[in-house]
Amino acid sequence: MYTILQGFGSAFRLIIALDPELLKIIWLSLKVSGAALVLAIALGLPLGALLALKRLPLRGLILSLINTGMGLPPVVVGLFVYLLLSRSGPLGFLELLYTPGAMIFAQFILAFPIVTSLSHTAIVNVNPIIRQAAQVLGANPLQEALTVIREARYGIMTGGIAGLGRVTAEVGAVIMVGGNIAGYTRVMTTTIALETDKGNFDLAIALGIILLGLSLLINLAFRAVQRMGRSGSGVVLWD
Amino acid sequence: MGLSLELAQISKAYNGRVILQDCSWTFETGFTHVLMGPNGMGKSTLLRICALLEAPDHGRVNYLGDNRPLAIGLELKRRITLLLPGVGVFNTSVFNNVAYGLKIRGLQRREIEERVGAILEMVGLADKKRQRALELSTGQSKRLGLARAMVLEPEVLFLDEPTASIDQENSEIIERIILEMKEKKRATIIMVTHDPAQARRLGDRLLLIKDGRLWPG
Q1: Which domains does chain A have, with CATH numbers?
Q2: Residue A155 pLDDT > 60, yes or no?
Q3: Residue ranges, chain B, pLDDT below 70
Q4: In terms of pLDDT, which residue wins out, A175 or A22?
Q5: From the list A136, A140, A236, which residue is nearest B53 (CB)?
Q6: What domains, with CATH codes, occur in chain B?
Q7: Do A239 and B93 count as a contact with CB atoms less than 8 A apart?
Q8: CB proximity list for A229: less than 8 A, separation 6 or greater
Q9: pLDDT tens per residue, range A8-24
Q10: Preferred mutation among B45, B48, B90 to probe A, highest tally of A CBs within 10 A
Q11: Among all residues of chain A, which has the CA nearest to that of B92?
Q12: Above 90 in pLDDT, residue A202?
């Protein structure tokens, strides 16, 4: 009879041996989640900054929608992206369904509201005197905005880390739009689900350990950034 | 001939309460003007309006260069500066704080280093150049703010209570720097203070603000 201890033993052997299948799955997971996060930051940070620094019409409504998006159930995102990318959907012509591109798209939708909302909060909480200081020192409106954003960098980094935490642990959306195709769209979370179904616990446990390790790293980074922000220590920028 | 400043019938109200009423004044170029008056009477508001950080409800702030009125825009704003009472220290090194205004003006690195180095010597913060600015004491932060403003060599420098809430030693250092600046640069300085003795030590001209109006002191 298979015991949990046996499973852990085999899992550690797979990790120590740097099993090629295991490495391939980890690499794809990091690529998909990394790309989704980069996109979420590229679009979410400017939007968060715009909402924090400009008195836009419908700002309250946009913020409410973004905050609601932070709690989106991944399966709902999976369904939505599936319908968009399916052959008869409005983005069907892109032929992205069951590709890593579809998984990046789904994870981007999950990370985007988190990055946007936390960036907005970080920027809006910068002491107004910073903006005034930039003004009296001769900053133009763009330089003024960049100065405020730079002061909010720890909060923005926290948003990025929170977004990464959300997407790396996610399974529902990527399995629906990626299809869990071996060697192509199979990532850590979907492999764990599949291998558990098949009763192949060694690989599932090995990936589980790595995923937990990754979560731990993300959490440690999250706490370190928050500590830096509170103490005002950390890297001195633009030297 | 440097930049000169005239106020024409400036009025300002907050939530229906009139703070400034028909304030008109010509600030003589190259002199140090000290603005005094009770708390909440609009001294800081007037300074912010003069420094183009706030717009008046009525009236005009006129800057003249070679006796010709200048358009209010970034070019003019870069010829003046204000030391805010709370300074607004950026979360970076002391050097980067002081270099900020020069960097955004696109000056070369070498010139920035020379000018920042010289001004940090002047305010006694040269040994803290690489230190994180947020770790400075309140008095040192004020000196940093003064250095950040002075390094820009403004033609009009506004100082909003530059020695408020700081210890005697830092206060004396700041006064010495202001006196040195008066002697060397001949920039027009317009400052707010609560201390009559300080006003006498630093000021060439005294203005009083009372019931929203400006009076010669």
Answers
A1: 4-231 (1.10.3720.10)
A2: yes
A3: 1, 185-186
A4: A175
A5: A136
A6: 3-89+153-216 (3.40.50.300)
A7: yes
A8: A154, A155, A158
A9: 888 888 888 888 888 99
A10: B90
A11: A236
A12: no
Residues of A in contact with B92 (CB under 8 A): 150, 236-238
pLDDT at residue A37 greater than cutoff 60 = yes
Contact A239 B132 (CB under 8 A): no
Q: Does B109 touch chain A (CB under 8 A)?
A: no
Question: For the purposes of burial, counting CB atoms within 10 Å of the CB of A4, is it exposed (0-12), middle (13-18) or buried (19 or more)?
Answer: exposed
Helix axes A100-124, A20-53, angle to 10 degrees: 40
Residues on chain B touching A136 (C-beta within 8 angstroms): 51, 53, 81-82, 84, 149
Q: Do B100 and A137 touch (CB under 8 A)?
A: yes
End-to-end CA distance of chain A: 61
Distance CA B215, CA B161 (A): 19
DSSP structural state of residue B151: T
**Chain A residues within an 8 Å CB radius of B142:** none
For residue A130, which residues of chain B lie inside 8 Å, CB to CB? 88, 90
- Which residues in chain B are closer than 8 Å to A236, comparing Cβ atoms? 92-93, 96, 130, 132
* Cα–Cα distances in angstroms (integers) from residue B34 to residues B59, B76, B181, B208, B217, in the given order: 22, 22, 15, 8, 9
Alpha-carbon torsion B33, B38, B44, B47, what sign?
A: negative
First to last CA, chain B: 26
What is the per-residue pLDDT across B82-100, written as a single tens digit (0 to 9) for each? 999 888 999 999 999 999 9
Cα distance between residue A222 and residue A158, in whole Å: 6
Residue A231's pLDDT is what?
61
Report residue A201 as tokens.
Answer: 């616990």
